[in-house]
Write a structure and sequence with these properties.
By secondary structure, the chain is mainly α. It has helices spanning about 1-10, 20-25, 25-35, 40-55, 60-95, 100-135, 145-150, 165-180, 185-225, 225-230, 235-260, 265-270, 270-280, 285-295, 300-315, 315-335, 340-355, 365-375, 380-390, 395-415. The chain has one domain (about 45-415): Sodium:dicarboxylate symporter (Proton glutamate symport protein), CATH 1.10.3860.10. One of its GO terms (cellular component) is plasma membrane.
Length: about 425
């Protein structure tokens, strides 16, 4: 996105006023600056390790400080998410020029197909493996981790200006509309809104993400819910993780073919986005990092700025995979009758429901509760187990979602050429200072 490029010079002045260092050898100056940087990826990893370790010994009074911060920060994220969607998607669609509507439909179609294929893949593996793996096992009802979490000292409600789906529809209508008129004040205003959103993300969201992640893992470690769920479904968790790895490799094989790049290098390039999502459990909160990683993988700015925020809401392949697998497991251990035809219908409906799921922690399972009850006959106990299981390891599904978003953007960029009039030149992009 062009606004990130305009932000780059702000961090550039540090090396420029050092001609003496340059005289002693350019090679000496550049590596030193790289070594001094402590990027987002190691900070998130440190936050996760410290959160789990300190969560076992931290006094509850101190833990509630971080829980309070997370409660306020989550409210701010919820307020900002619709603005992120409008501020990024609308001007990105406008910059695509003619053919944006077709590209929108193409992106949505590719995202839906990816989600459905992941769900069917999970269903097939579950049908083959889980009956033998969970034979003779049963589990009682578990508490919702959100209900048993450490209470914050206080909460501040920051209601968003409008909902996620309203933001999407508004961004689509305005973005496509701006492609039909001459460039003017409206498009310039949305570009300025994008700059404001990006600066807010860079100055507030990204620097505070490690603290938010630390507080989340402290809470999970202290209430013990994550160990209960993972201990009960340890084998299922391993199967889910193995399936997400297979899915990501398959997605990036297609993406690498689409833009003629090494798929494994592209997948490794998405590591900061994967780790960010692993800690936040929020596709929307990870948008800035996903966007930068996608651009560094060679996806044109116009496509990346359009596809990544859109896919953060409608492409939940990892969540669909996880919900399908755990639903099958819960039905087995609860003694419910499992119908493959009913499960196939559930997967297709789940793909539609995921489009409306907010890209926030636990958003996918909350959106799926109605389908679980109506199509699979889940009662309160079964729904409780699903919620507990899903939220406890929500981050792995979210990490798969956002990493796959980069693959979807690459695939879409292959078909965008010749169909839109915007600039689809892939430029070399240095990572933002936080990534």
């Amino acid at each position: 996105m062009s606004d990130h490029e305009s932000a780059a010079p702000s961090s550039a002045p540090s090396p420029t006023p050092a001609p003496a260092a340059a005289a002693s050898g350019p090679a000496a100056g550049a590596p030193a600056r790289r070594r001094s940087r402590f990027g987002l990826l190691p900070r998130i990893g440190l936050a996760i390790v410290l959160g789990i370790g300190l969560g076992l010994v931290m006094p509850e009074a101190l833990a509630r400080v971080f829980t309070t911060f997370n409660a306020v920060f989550s409210q701010f994220l919820g307020f900002l998410i619709p603005l992120i969607i409008v501020g990024l998607v609308a001007p990105a669609i406008a910059e695509l020029g003619r053919g944006a509507g077709r590209l929108l439909a193409l992106t949505a179609g590719v995202a839906y197909v990816s989600t459905i294929l992941c769900g069917l893949f999970a269903l097939g593996v579950s049908w083959l493996v889980l009956p033998r793996l969970l034979a003779g096992r049963s589990v009682g009802a578990l508490e919702n981790p959100e209900d048993s979490a450490i209470a914050p000292y206080f909460e501040i409600e920051i209601p968003p200006v409008f909902g996620v789906m309203t933001a999407l529809v508004l961004a689509f209508c305005l973005g496509v509309g701006m492609t039909l008129v001459q460039r003017g004040a409206l498009q310039e205003s949305f570009e300025q809104l994008r700059t404001i959103v990006v600066r807010t993300i860079e100055a507030i969201i990204i620097p505070l993400l490690p603290i938010y992640i630390f507080g989340m893992f402290v809470s999970l470690a202290m209430n013990g819910q994550i160990w209960t769920v993972i201990g009960t479904f340890a084998a299922v968790v391993l199967i889910v993780f193995a399936m997400t790895v297979i899915v990501l490799i398959a997605q990036y094989c297609v993406a690498g073919w689409a833009i003629r790049r090494n798929p494994l290098k592209m997948l490794w390039g998405m590591a900061p986005a994967y780790m960010t999502a692993l800690g936040t459990s929020s596709s929307a909160a990870t948008i800035p990092v996903t966007l930068e990683c996608t651009r560094r993988n060679g996806v044109p700015d116009a496509v990346a700025s359009f596809a990544v925020p859109l896919c953060a809401t409608i492409h939940l392949a990892g969540s669909t995979l996880k919900i399908t697998t755990f639903a099958y497991a819960v039905m087995l251990i609860s003694g419910m009758e499992v119908s493959i035809l009913a499960m196939i219908g559930f997967v297709f409906m789940l793909g539609i429901v995921m489009i409306a799921a907010p890209g926030v922690p636990g958003g996918a399972i909350m959106a799926a509760v109605g389908v679980l009850s109506s199509m699979l006959g889940f009662g309160e106990a079964a729904v409780g187990i699903m919620i507990a299981s899903y939220i406890a390891i929500d981050s792995f599904g979210t990490a798969t979602n956002v990493t796959g978003d980069g693959a979807i953007a690459a695939i879409v960029s292959r078909f965008a050429r010749g169909h839109v009039s915007g600039d689809l030149t892939a430029r070399h992009v240095e990572s933002i200072d936080a990534v």
